[in-house]
Design a protein that fits this description.
The protein is built from 9 helices and 7 strands; from the N terminus they run αααβαβααββαβααββ. By secondary structure, it is an alpha/beta fold. It has one domain: Rossmann fold, CATH 3.40.50.150. A 7-stranded mixed sheet has the order 3-2-1-4-5-7-6, sandwiched between helices. Helix 7 packs across helix 9. The longest helix is centred in the N-terminal third of the chain and has 14 residues. The chain is globular, with a radius of gyration of 16 Å.
């Protein structure tokens, strides 16, 4: 049981050698999920983009390759994740197209109205205060800018039986387990407009998106 809890904690805040292995695995496992999710949002060549909970940095690299004339930022509160993401994006960092920062979603180190797009892949489960953190992201979005949340675990999804078996263990740690409808409500209550939720049940994937109102 202790080992299982340690592994679950590594998903929220990787550290040490186990964290490095987990980051490598997440980069590989989440690639197709991320590709699917990003199809539901438009990414402009010159856009300013933030990836919250950037992990091993693969999503940052994908976003930078799409916004070829813009700048992509990644932020994570895990030192191991920041280091891994910087390694993954070292060439883009060197030419000024990517920047990776240490920090929390609860206190983003950016001015108001900074980003055209904010992404969060497999991370919102662990945010300290989900409702307040959604509003903090809204603050740094430009008017009309979008937030997209991409995940492979949600209430009522394909992996529900596994999630239920882990429920008692996850009760020992902070974890948000939302249904399709609750994802939509999360965005709306935080002040987002044009809210949409997409589900790929056969794979257990969900994607929720909303915009900062005009």
């Amino acid at each position: 049981m202790n080992l299982t809890i340690r592994l679950l904690n590594q998903c929220s805040k990787p550290s040490g050698w186990l964290g490095r292995m987990n980051l490598w695995s997440m980069n590989r496992r989440h690639s197709k999920l991320t590709e699917w999710g990003l199809k539901h949002v438009s990414i402009r060549n010159h856009g300013s983009i933030l990836d919250v909970g950037c992990g091993g940095g693969r999503t940052v690299a994908r976003l930078a390759a799409m916004a070829t004339e813009g700048k992509t930022y990644g932020i994570d509160y895990s030192e191991a994740s920041v280091a891994a993401s910087r390694r993954t994006n070292r060439k883009r960092i060197a030419v000024g197209r990517v920047e990776i920062l240490s920090g929390s979603v609860s206190h983003l180190p950016f001015p108001d109205q900074t980003f055209d797009l904010v992404t969060a892949v497999e991370t919102h489960y662990y945010w300290p205060d989900l409702n307040a953190d959604m509003r903090e992201i809204l603050r740094v979005l430009k008017t009309g800018g979008a937030l997209i949340i991409i995940a492979e675990a949600y209430k009522g999804g394909k992996h529900d039986q596994l999630l239920q078996r882990l429920e008692k263990l996850r009760g020992l740690m902070h974890y948000a387990h939302l249904s399709v409808g609750e994802h939509s409500e999360l965005f709306s209550k935080a002040g987002y407009s044009d809210v949409q939720v997409f589900e790929e049940y056969t794979k257990g994937w969900i994607c929720a998106a909303g915009r900062k109102p005009q």
